Fold these 2 entries.
Entry 1:
Amino acid sequence: MTLAITIGIMVAGGVYLMLQRGMVRIVLGLVLLGHSVNLLIMSAGGVFRRDLPLLQFGTALTAGDPLPQAFVLTAIVIAFSIAIYMLTLAASGSDDDTEDAS
Amino acid sequence: MNTSLLPLFVAVPLVSAGLLIVLGGPLWLRRTLLLAPSSAALLASTGLIWLTRDGAVFAHNVGLWQDGIAIPFVADVLSALMLWTTSLLALVCSAFAIATGDDRRPFFATLVLVLTAGVSGALLTGDIFNMFVFIEVMLLPSYGLLAMLGALGRLRAGRIYVTVNLLTSTIFLAGVALVYASAGTVHLGELAGAAKEDPAVAVGAGVVILALSIKAAVVPVHGWLARTYPAASPAVTALFSGLHTKVAIYAIYRLYAMIFDGDAKFLWIGVVAFTLTMVIGVLGAVGENTTRSILVFHMISQIGYILLGVALFTELGLMAGIFYLIHHMIVKASLFLSTGAIEHTYGTGALDRLGGIAQREPLLALVFMGAALSLAGLPPFSGFVAKLTLVTAAVDDAQWTAVAVMIAVSLITLMSMLKIWGGVFWGREPKPHELPEPAVVGADGSVATRTTVPVKIRPALIAPGLVLTATTLCIGLGAQVLLDLSAQAAAGLMDTSGYVEAVLGR
C-alpha cells in the first residue's frame, strides 16, 4: 500500500513537472517518472519475500525475487545516462522557450 | 545451423564500434569498419532467409543457460527478412553518408554501428525486457547523430526527440513491470497466449504496445516524428526512417501475435487507429513545402497501411502487412536519399527554391520517379503488389471503410508526389531575383543562400538511391519470392507453436 501511494505521488509529480516549459524541469520530471517506474518493477516482484536469493542462505519460498532487481539496475543506468544527455541539450544551443513569441 | 552464431549479428557491429574508438585510425580504415559489418550482416541474413524459408525457427540461449531462464535469440523468417532489409539500408545509407562527408565527423561510424547492433538485437531477442534494452541501445546513438548532424534547429528537434523517446521508454518499462507482475515472466515463449487468457496480462501488454505505437508514430501520437526527422541530415533521416519506426512495427507484429495470440476482441482499436493514421498522415503532407517534411508525413500515412495488416490478423492480412513493411522500408529510404542528394548539393529542399532538376539530372529524376510511383502503388513496382494484397485482405475481412480510405489515400499520395515532382524536377530553375525572401537566418545573422553556379550532383550521391529503386523494381517484377516468404512469416505469426517449441525446447 505504501509503495502504491509512493508510486502514485511520484507519477503525479513527474507528470506535473513534464508539463512545465523549462527543459530542466522536464528532465527532473522524467527522472521522477523513471524512479516511480523502478518502484513499480520492484513491487512487481513482490516485496514480502526478502531473504537472499541464494539457496544456501534460505529456501526458495522466502528468497526475494532477483529478476526485478536486475531489471531496475539496468533501467537506472539507461535513464541516468539519458537524463545527463538531456541536461547537456538543455544547456547547449539557444533557449527555445516560446513564451515571448506567442 | 549452428545457432550460437545468432548473437554475432549484435556482437560484430558492437566489437567494430569498440575497435573504431580504440584504433581511431585513418579515414579508409574507419570507412571499412563502417561498411564491413553491414555487408557481412547482409550476406548472413540472406543465408538465414534461405534456412528459415520453410518455417524453421532457430533459437539460441545466450550464455548457454537452460531453456526458460536464458535470454533467447530467435530467428524465424520474419526476423530474417527484417534483418536483411535493415542491413541493406544500413549499408546503403552509410555509403550515402560517405558520399556527403557526414562520416568525417568524429564518432559517426561508431554511432551508426552501435545503432545497427541495437536494431539487430531488438529483431532477434525473444524477451520483452531485453527488447527494451536493445531499443535503448538503438536510440542512444540516434540522439548523438541527430544533435551532431543536421540543419538549423537540430538541437530543438533533439530535445523533442529525446524527451519523447525517454517518456516512451518509461511507459514501455511500466508495461514490462505490469506483465511481470501478472504473468511472472517476460519471456516471449512462456507468454504465448497469456493475454488472451488473463485480462491482467492484457493490460500490461497493452501498455507495452501503446509505447511501441508512440515509437512507430501512430496517430494520435505521431506529432514528434514530423517535427524531428526533417531537422537531421539527409543520410541520418533515411537511416532513421528505415530502422527506428520499423523496429517498433516489427515488435507490434511479434508481440500481438505472441502475447495476445491474435485476440480478435481488440482488433477494432487497431483498425480505427491505423485508418486514421493513413488519412491524417497524408493530409498533413498537403501543407508542407519542403521535400523532406512532405516525405516524413507520408511515412506516417504509410505506417497506417503497414499496421493495418496486424489489425486484420488474417493470414492474408499479415502476409500483406509484412510484404508492405519490407517494400516501404526500401522505397522510403530511396526517396529520402534521392531528395537528400538534391538537398546536399543545392543546399535546400524547399519546393519554391528548386526547379528543373529533371533536365539537369535525368538519372536522379528517374530514381525519384520510380520510388515515388512505387510509394503511390503503381505497377510494375513493389508498391502495387503490396497495396493490392492489402486491399484484397481488407476486402476478405469486410473492412469496407478501410478499403475506401486506402484507395483514396493512394490518390492523395500520388498527388503529393507530383507536387514534389512539379516543384523540384519540372519547370525551370528559379532565377535569383525570383527567389522568395530567405526564410532561414542563422543565429549570427548569416543568411543561408543558394549557390547560383551550375553544379552537378555527383554520381556517388545518386547511386545509393538508385540501388534501392532497382530493388523495389526487382521486388515488384519478381513479387512471388517475397510473397512466399511473407506468407511463411504470416503463418509463423498465426500459429506460434513452432516459435514456442524452438525457444522452450518442448
Entry 2:
Amino acid sequence: MVSLQSLTALGKREATIVTHGPMTITERTDVALASLAARKGRMADLDKAAKAAGVPLPGPATHRTGTPYSAFWTAPEIWFVEAPYATHELIADLLKTAFGESASITEQTDAWVAFDLAAADLTPVLERLCNVDFSFVPAGYATRTVMEHLGVYLIKHDLGAARIYGPRSSAESLLHAIKTAAHSLW
Amino acid sequence: MTQSHRIEGGQIDRSKTLRFTFDGIPYQGHPGDTLASALLANGVRLMGRSFKYHRPRGPLSAGSEEPNALVELRSGGRQEPNTRATVAELYEGLTASSQNRWPSLRFDAMGINDKLSTFFAAGFYYKTFMWPKSFWEKLYEPIIRRAAGLGSVTREEDPDAYDKGFLHCDLLVIGAGPAGLMAALTAGQAGKRVILADEDFRMGGRLNAETFAVGDSQGADWATATVAELASLPNVRLMTRTTVVGAFDHGIYSAVERVSDHLPTPAKGKPRQVLWRIYTGKAILAGGATERPIAFENNDRPGIMLSGALRAYANRWGVKAGERVAVFTNNDDGLRTAIDLQAKGIDVVAVIDSRDGGDLLPGIRHLRGADVIDTSGKLGLTSITVRQGNGRSETIALNALGISGGWNPNVNIHSHHRSRPVYDPTIAAFVPGQDGPPGLLVAGAAAGQMSTHAALKTGRDAAIAAFDLTTVPDLPQAEDAPVKITPLWHVAHGKGRAWIDQQNDVTVKDVQLAKQENFTSVEHLKRYTTLGMATDQGKTGNVIGLAVMAELTGRSIPETGTTIYRPPYTPVALGALAGRSRGREFKPFRLTPSHHWAREQGATFVEVGNWLRTQWVPKPGETEWRQSVDREVLATRKSVGICDVTTLGKIDIQGTDAGAFLDRVYANTFSTLAVGKCRYGLMLREDGIVFDDGTTARMGQNEYVMTTTTANAVTVFRHLEFCRQCLWPEMDVQLISTTEAWAQFSVAGPNARKLLEKIVDQDISDAAFPYMAAGNITVGGLRARLFRISFSGELAYEIAVPTRYGDALLREMLAKGAEYDPIVYGTEALGVMRIEKGHVAGGELNGTSTALNMGLGKMVSKKKDSIGMVLSQREGLTDEDGYRLVGVRPVDPKASLTAGSHFLEKGVAPMAANDGGWLTSKVSSPHLGCDIALGYLKAGDRKIGQRMRIVNLLAGLDTEVEIISPHMFDPEGERLRG
C-alpha cells in the first residue's frame, strides 16, 4: 500500500512560522479550500443549500467567519469556502453533496499557500506589499490584489490580523516578499 | 579657520559637529546643514564645473532647483552623480567630490572649452562636423560627448535596497510651506485623512528662510508648532524628505521618500528610498515658487546666487555667502535680502535696482535704474560692474551677489497632464492654467499668491473647497506685501555670454541664434538650444529663455508661450523605480512539486515563464548535457521515464453548458466526448490562427478538465473568461484554474503501466483504462487523477495528486518501480521525444500558423461554429501550396541542423524569393542517431521524400536534407496504444 507524506508549500514537513519584530507570519496548512460558483439561474437553490449546510455567502469584498465553514466573495456568485483541513480534507466532495447541481465546486486547497499575518497594526507592512487601503477597510474585508507581481487574496480579520492566499508554487517568493517588507520596517 | 562664514542664528544644531570631506579636504558642519550650506560656511564657493564650457560654478540656489552645485556623493557602489549639494543633507562622514573636471576642480584642463566656446554654441557642431559622414559617429560625437558631461556612474552594483509602496488618503498636500501647512491643518482638523509631503527634511518651506512673523511667533516657530499639532492628529501623516514627483491618472501621485539618504548607510535591511504610489481623492499643490535670476554677462561665477538663496543661507543656516555683498533686483523681494543681510551684520555694499524711482532703502546704498553689466573673478566673484541710471559704469569689489528676477510659481506638477500655464503680468510669471489634473487644487506661491498671508489663506481655502468644510481654523496674522516687479529678463550690454540655463550652459546668444535660425517656437527653442533639458528641467532658466525669445521676436510672453513639464519633478534614482525587482528578485519564481527532489539530484533548471522546470537530471560521470538528455530519452523509450508536467495549465470547466462551451472555444468537438475520456483539442484565435492546444478530459457529465500549454496557461484562462463573461453570458459555465492544485507527472515508456500498477489502487489494464481514458482514482486511498495520454509517443499516463503529495509521489514511483529502472527526465528530453513524434509545441505554435499549416486542418470542424473557424478558411490561409509541417533529417547523419534555417531547393541562390520555409524546432535524436527537425515548408505535404537544402547564412550552414513525415518515431502509434 502506497503511503504518501505531504510537504508544505515551502517544501517542509511542518508549517513555517516566522517572527520578525512585532509581526508573525504563520503558514497555514490546516485550511481546506474550495471554490463555490452558482450554476446559471440556480442562486436561490444555492442560497438554500448554503443555509442548510452552514456555508456563509458574504457579499462583495467580504469574508465571513463560521463553523466549520467560512467563506469570502471572489466574484459575482462565486466564493471560496474555508474549513478545517483535519475534518474537511475532502471539502469539494462535502460541498458537492451539500449543493448538488446548484453549484460548481472545485477543490482549491493545494492551489494556494496561506499565510496568516499578525501584529498590532499590519498597515505599514501591507502598504509596502499591495495597494489595499488596509487601515481604512473594515474587518472582514476580502479582496484580490497583487503583491510583488503575484496575484493574491487578502483577507482582513482586524487591523492586526490578516490572511494572504498566494499561488502555492510561488510560496517561497511570496514569503520572501512579506519578510522583506517586514525587515524594511522593523 | 573652521566655518569661517558661519554667523549667528539659523536652524542648525550647533551643539553637534559633523565632519565631512569635499574633494578629499576635511570640513565641519552641523546637523541641519546641507552640503552646500556647510561648504559655504567653510568659505567654499567653488563646487562644480559647468556642463559644456567647464566654467567654475558655485550654488545658485538653496533648494532642489539647483543647476550648478552638482557633486558626486559617497563612493564605491553608493556613488551618486549629479547630486545637488543644496539638498544633500549633511551627515557625519559624508564624502563628496566635484565632477566633470580634470585634473582638479580649481584647475580644470577642460576649461579650454570656455575659450573655444564658439565651437560649442547651440547646433554648431551638428552643422560643422559633417564631413566625412562616417566620422560623426566614430570620431566627432565621441569627442564632443567626452568634452561635455556631468557626473560619472559607478560601475559597482548599488548595495542598497529600494522599496515601493502604496498610500491612500483623502487629501495629499504637496509642500509644507505656509500654504501646505494651513491646508493640512484645515483638512486634518476636519477629520480628513491627510498626507503632507515635503521634499525638505524640515517642514515650513520658505518660513524657515524668512524673518517674517506669523501670528505671535517667528514664521519658522509657527511652522514648528503647526507641524507638532499636525503630528498629534492620527489622521495626518507627515512625510519629510519626500518629493512628490508626478501626477498621474485617477488621483494617483508618485512620491520618493528618501528614508536613508541622510545617513552614511541605511540601517541593516532598511531601504534607502521608497517610491510611493499615493491614491488620493483630492490634492493641493503648495509647492511654492522658485526665484529666477537675471541674465547679464558672466552672471554665473561662484558667489553669484539667487537673492532668496542668499537670504536663506543667512537666516536658516547661519551662513554668509560673502563678507561684502550686493543685491541686483527688479522687484521688492530683492530688497528683503538686503535688509535681512544687513540685520545680520553683513556688509551690504549696494542694492542695484533696475527699476526707476520709488523709495530708497534706508542705510543701504540703493542704486535705482541701475544694472549689473559684468562681473569678474576667475574661480569666484571678486567684483561687479554696475551701469547706473546716468549711464556711468562703476566697479564694485565684493564676493557675493544676490540676484532677484522675480519668482516663478512651481506649476510643474499641475502641468503633468499637459495643462499649459498662463502668464500673469502682475507677478511677471506663469501661473497654473485651468485644466490641471482633476482633483488638484493649487495654493500659495504655486498659485501666484506670493505673500505669507495669501499663502495661509489660499491653503486654508483650498482645503475648504476640496471638502466643503464649514468649521475651519482661524488664520494667523502675517505679512501681505504686494508683488512689486518691473520685469527685466536680461541686461542688454556687450557681446559676452549671459547665462540663462546654467546647467546646460545655454546663453542669451544661443537664444539669439535660435531666433536667427527661425527656431522661434518655444518647443523648437528648447530642442535647438537644450534650454530646460537638463536634470533641473530649467526651473531657473526656462522663463528667462522664452522671455528673451519674446523680446527678440517682438511678441508678448503669452504669445510666445511656455513649454510644460513632465514627471519626475526632480530626478529619481533608477533603483527607486526598480524597487525590489532586481537580480534574483526581479520576478517571483514558481517551483514545481518535484523541485526539491530535483535540487537534491543536482538537476539543471530552465526558466519557463516564472516556472523553474527541470531541464535535465545529470547522473555521476555525465559531463555534458547531451549525455544526460540522450540517456533520459533512451531510458524512457526502453523502460519508463517520469516528467513533472505540473506546469501545464489546468482549467476546471463545469456547468450544464460546459460541453457546448468547449465546442465553441475549440476547433474540434467536445460535447460528444464520453465521460471518462480525454481528447486532444485545438484552440484558434478569432483570426483563424492557432492559439493553443492541449488535452481536455471529461470527468463528469458537466465537468471537464482542460490542459493548456505552460506558456499560455494564463492567456487561455483569460480568453475563456472573456468568452464566458462577454461573448456568451447566457451559458451555464463556471471556470477556475487548478494548475497549482495538482501535482501532475507524465509516466512514459513501455513499463509505464507496470510501474503505475504498483502505485494506483485501481485496475489500469489496457482494457480497464484504454488509450485516452481519464478518471478519478486513488493512490493509497488518496484522491488522485489519471489520464492516459502521451506526448512522447510511448505508452504513457499523466497521474495527478494534490500538490502537497507531489514530492512523495515522485519518490514513491521511483522507489516502488525500481525494478524498471525509472528515470526522471526534463524538458530537453521531453522536447526530443515530442519532435521525434511530430507533436507541435512553442516553435510551431508561433502565433502565425494555422491548423492546416500544422497538418491538423481536419481538426477544424465545419459542422459547428467555433472561434476562428470562419476566418481559418480565408483565402491565403487555405492555399494548397502554403506551409505544411514536415520532418527533416540530414542526408549525412553527421551534419548539423539549426532551428531557424531556411529551406531552399538545390541550386538556387539563398534569397528571400527562393525561400521555401524554415525549421521551427531541432533536436539531436538518440533514437534516430542524427539531428532531426520540424519545419514549415511550402507544399511540404507533397514534398515528403524529396531532398532539399537547409541554409543558415548566419551560422554558415548549407546542408542537404531529406523531407520526411513529421511523425518520425512510431508513426502508427502502436507504442502509445500498447
